[in-house]
Design brief:
single chain, 170 residues, alpha+beta, Arc Repressor Mutant, subunit A, 3-stranded antiparallel β-sheet, 6 strands, 12% strand
Length: 170
């Protein structure tokens, strides 16, 4: 597969302190990977150019050539070693804040959010975020639920996103 500036973006390059390039077919491909030409002149079979972290000079290095048959043999050997052990918890849905996806009716933060807005006398998503140390999505879900249950009114464009609290302090 040909390296493309659409795939290898500046952000990706910035997060890799070292870069290597094996033989490529065109100098543009070398420039995409290393930021300069040269990889198009390599011999192949493990011959590569490396740009070490913190250095500006390319180094020509040779790696061991591992053929397709050897890779297949290693993979087959690893498969014979035993079945993988999977952690089923990884498949459970999560909310946008990274925590377990708790049904809204069972959300332990909801009661805290209601008490918070009742005490403050106003409600806004940013206020909930600050008071409960949650992300925007979680705070927005809590505010939406409070509106559905009649705790707060709709957002007011005049009040900068603040909502009127429709209940008295608890």
């Amino acid at each position: 597969q040909r390296p493309s500036v659409d795939v290898i973006t500046g952000m990706i390059k910035a997060n890799f302190p070292a870069r290597i390039a094996f033989k490529v077919s065109q100098r543009q491909d070398s420039a995409t990977i290393l930021g300069r030409n040269g990889a198009e002149h390599l011999l192949g079979m493990g011959d590569m150019l490396m740009l070490p972290p913190g250095q500006s000079d390319l180094q020509r290095v040779h790696s061991a050539y591992v053929g397709e048959d050897e890779v297949k043999a290693i993979c087959d050997h690893l498969r014979e070693q035993g079945k993988p052990v999977y952690d089923e918890k990884i498949l459970e849905p999560r909310d946008e804040d990274g925590g377990p996806n708790v049904p809204e009716s069972d959300d332990p933060l909801y009661d805290k959010a209601v008490a918070c807005v009742a005490q403050a006398g106003y409600c806004s998503i940013s206020h909930i975020q600050r008071q409960l140390s949650v992300g925007y999505n979680k705070a927005a879900k809590l505010v939406d639920r409070m509106e559905e249950e009649g705790v707060v009114g709709p957002a007011s464009s005049k009040a900068g996103g603040r909502r009127e609290v429709l209940i008295t302090a608890l």
